[in-house]
């Protein structure tokens, strides 16, 4: 199976922060959820993949091509959405169509209008009068209307109500029904990722802590509850994160490494994030 994107030893340095080296890839036909705390490097990674910011090391390939050598053709085949609207406040839905059909060779005005209808967006209302949800839906409609193969999405459902989020997730699932399409989706709303993601990649302080198939992740990991004395007998290398309180200790472990007879509770993605961030620092 081909990969929609590949990052190998990718590095970006800022004053006081470094992302990477990160090696990551996404098979075609899949959705990857990108999670991590604020400032972990998720937006930086997406900007590196698109070429918006220049990398300081490593390699990136999108759909088998490099952004540096094949920028025009690559940009035709990717759709990008960030968490803030990129359209001028004076723009209306029809203005987006007028401008972007001059930029993208594959722009499909009829498809764009279909998305506006599906997402209940007006053609003649200015963006300044849109709610946050409407602005996000407009960006998504525009990203899809030039028929990309890969979507790179930075917090597209953040701050939206559950009804709007479900609308948008349905659009993503329809997009991914084509096995040649893929999505990298950064989100703090882990419930959304549990619904639609095939893979989960977790970034903490610029470092990729794990990337695994979502179903395997939720099946293979669990929370071991034990006493402080039992925890002292546990091999430290088996603990991915620890949370201690006055009466007990909770340890994030792989189920197959837990001591015989131990009770290991199911874990959710947001629980794993807490263990892998705060729990790793205890």
Structural account:
The chain is of the alpha/beta class. The chain contains ten helices and 13 strands. The strands form three sheets. A six-stranded mixed β-sheet has the order 5-6-7-3-8-9, with helices on both faces. Helix 4 (109-118) runs antiparallel to helix 5. The chain is elongated and about 70 Å long. The chain starts with a strand and ends in a 5-residue tail after the last helix.
Strand portion = 25-35%
* Helix run count: 10
Overall form: elongated
Distance between the termini: 40 Å
Task: Spell out the helices and strands N to C.
Answer: EEEHEHEHHHEHEHEEHEHEEEH
| Largest sheet composition | 6 strands, mixed
Roughly what percent helix?
25-40%
- The pLDDT mean sits at 87
Strands in their spatial order, largest beta sheet: 5-6-7-3-8-9
